[in-house]
Structures are given as C-alpha cells and as structure tokens.
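User: structure tokens for this one?
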Amino acid sequence: MDQAAFSLCQEQKLPICVFNFLDDKNLMKAAKGVKVGTIVKA
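Assistant:
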C-alpha cells in the first residue's frame, strides 16, 4: 500500500485490513469476511 492510498483511507475514515498476502488462502478469507490479519483504523 502506498502513501497516497493510506492517506485517502485515513481522510475517508476507512479501515484497512493488513494481512500476509503471500499466503494464498488469506485473500479469500478476507473477501469472505473471516478475521485475518490486523484492522487499522484512523
């Protein structure tokens, strides 16, 4: 995630889900709403 995307999320008060993208299953879990990684809130 670059600084511009992070700043946009912060300005719009959007939470960011940070997780290990190298694990193939994590993306599908996150898309399904399963708790994976860490939620960062502004």
